[in-house]
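Q: Hi! First time asking for a complex rather than a single chain. Here are the components, and I think there are two in total. Is that enough to go on?
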Amino acid sequence: MPTVSMTVNGKAVSADVETRTLLVQYLRENLGLTGTHVGCDTSQCGACVVDLNGESVKSCTVLAVQLEGAKVTTIEGLAQGDKLHPMQEAFREHHALQCGFCTPGMVMSAIDLVKTNPKPSEREIREWLEGNLCRCTGYHNIVKAIGAAAETMRI
Amino acid sequence: MTATGIGASVRRVEDRRFLTGRGNYTDDINRPGQLYAWILRSPHAHAAIRSIDTRKAAAAPGVAGVFTGADLESAGVGGLPCGWLIHSKDGSPMNEPPHPVLAIGKVRHVGDPVAVVVAASTAQARDAAELIAIDYQPLPAVVTMAAALAGGAATVHDGAVGNVCYDWEIGDKSAVDVAFKAAAHVTKIDLVNNRLVANPIEPRAAVAEFERSTGQYTLYTTTQNPHVIRLLMGAFVLHLPEHKLRIVGPDVGGGFGTKIFHYAEEALLTWLAGQVEKPVKWTSERSESFTSDAQGRDHVSHAELALDKDGKFLGLRVATQANLGAYLSTFSTSVPTYLYATLLAGVYTTPAIYAEVKSVFTNTVPVDAYRGAGRPECAYLLERLVDKAARETGIERSEMRRRNMIQPDQFPYQTPVALQYDVGNYPASLDAALKSSDWAGFPARQAEAAKRGRRRGIGISTYIEACGIAPSAVAGALGARAGLYESAQVRVHATGSVTIYTGSHSHGQGHETTFAQVVADTLGIPFDQIEISHGDTDKVQFGMGTYGSRSIAVGGSALLKACNKVIDKGKKIAAHILEASEADIEFKDGKFTVVGTDKELPFGQVAFAAYVPHNYPIETVEPGLNETAYYDPLNFSFPAGCHICEVEIDPDTGTLEVVKFTAVDDVGRVINPMIVEGQVHGGLAQGIGQALLEGAVYDGTGQLLTGSYMDYAIPRADNLPNFDVTTQSVMGASNPLEVKGVGEVGAIGSPPAVINAVLDALIPLGVSDISMPATPAKIWQAIDAARSGHKAA
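A: Yes, that's all I need. Here is the structure of the assembled complex.
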């Protein structure tokens, strides 16, 4: 089995992995970072979105062995101690989550949106989320939270 | 109202763990030495199993065992039970064919589990499963109800002649016949309520382990009701006593009904853990969910409404066929009967109603409760029918509804279909929604849209539903094989903090917050001193779980009752310490006071005295402060409301935009407005999804064509508008919290409002009907057919 080394949430990690191991499996099964979720098998749902080298990606679409030297941030790596990231805080404040299963992917995706487009319109937020499915919230409060977080993050 | 009490939009307690990746969902749970199960499922909708050869699979790398239906049968494993017995018109009990955990002799739907491999990894189990050789003899499949009911059709179950499970009726047939004879006008409609897939984003999963030293089994599973699973699995399937079974429903990533039922995989995993004496884990893939999670809806109905010359409803006649799929899922039989036809009065005074429901077996995935369960089917039928009647008689649509509504002074209102509505104010919801949606200003918006080449339509529905299921005695008389109360325990700790054990289960609803609000208000203790525990049968005394919007109405009422027991005992303790008579002790704002004096004891001190009983009425009061209550409701609760939808359609392409959605819902007392609105948003999304996007489609051979998120369209963010949601509450009269339930209202009221809006936009183009989901292709075809005078495909 090949060895792969990368940085996950600021920590250097190295492991022997089967070549067919997806990044999401590596995170969940090898590193025990179970905050990144799997909701489908066709790369539609977005529950597994993480930050890879500064971009949001579906971690079910990347093989772990492709990631030698990569920097990965997962939902577990966002908060600074007890202080939530502004996007996490906005999701809490605006009730943008119910069961919490799509939430990690939503938050990771939303952060990338605001990085790419610091002042997204409601339509832009809705269109950006085309790769993130939520069955609980009807998106109403997610859209509101992302808009609010964008304002906080601009300050 | 306090900042954390009833009525406050308290931010949720559970959010921090979900937002930081520290949730604990079933697939996050791993046990030392665990093995992995892979379930081999039928690729055929209907086939005889001539033979199964597992030898190669058993010899494959990493494999600990391969098991088939025959192995389970010889081990004495029973079939999955159905929880509700329905009797047909002629008094005969429903056809209740066996539902084996793994198929025996025959497979009856694509996805029917046939064999299981247990191995050191999922990949090894899956690889080995490919080595299982099954000799299938494909049989003709019956996929639609029409095919299943046709003469000479193949039978799904040998014992169910004609593929009929039951042929049931409710109401007064002759009174309805009389009403129709007197009618000035009769409106008729034929409707299909499309089959849906619930699709919680967390797929089902299970981890089972067996403790050799004690013979104890633990099952972690994605369930809405762990005690129900323990009861059904222990008593009917595995024949294990409940004291040897622990079921844990940890964080659950959405349920929407489909995680109520006792599934084959739960019993299978538990049994396997005992066989291999190691923990065993199974996690469904999404494609597996599509063919193994119970699906929802799937009705075909014909309905007729008799009206007098003024548009007053005189009688309603309904004939419905309900598709139950290949097997009876746990509560499947109750959905198209008692959860559907008992609501056919709607919010109207229709004096005579008769409905007959024929439930049918087909070679498709089993159908059971999905958000709303029977009530969306009912609301859709009624509100489509009423709209059509309004158009045919020329009475304005909202006026037609108003004219027939039960008035606020008519409660309690006995309907002709068994239910007695406790309280409500339907005209108030209607008025509020008409105002909020600017119903009167619609023609101007329509004209403006027309200038842009868009067809704009507006649609309305005034719905009712029954929640808070149910008085156990009533449910029992109607065929329920379970009680439907709920329990709560308040465990007060010596230092005054409390842990609540509730039989309700949260899978997104926010019980850890709303239930704590009830406790904070009742016991007057700080919010952060309250812990809500649920989902573990070894911790929680008992519970019937969460479905049918019953948590706060039934579980919350049990909690209130338990809190009041704590207060009653506290009064006895306080009376002793304060040297007063118990009758003079009053409890308010977290303090026991002697009425008319300044003598008081805070709650925490009474708790401490209960556990350190130095100065204590020990001769009459036991130490400790730990009270349990069970609450069995007196009646259902009846949320109701008015939904108004506005759409714009591009007639050249058939694309549709929901431009405005107004929901006014009466959910009784609101514990947490933020959470209540969130529940309505989610329900609306699923209702709009049913109306415009979603539908489980099988081909003629029973293959599910919509078996992934590439083919089955659950709503995405850009399919939906922002929602205008308000509550217009009349306090509930059937439980002490005066709540009604909110989980399902959005999914019940919205589909007819959407389709009525679509038709409002299209009728001027000559379109007379459209079925759900009203996709752009279907809308375009309907417009095209109307223009060219052909019937739409």
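A: The CA atoms of residues 94 and 166 of chain B lie 5 Å apart. Let me know if you'd like any chain examined more closely.
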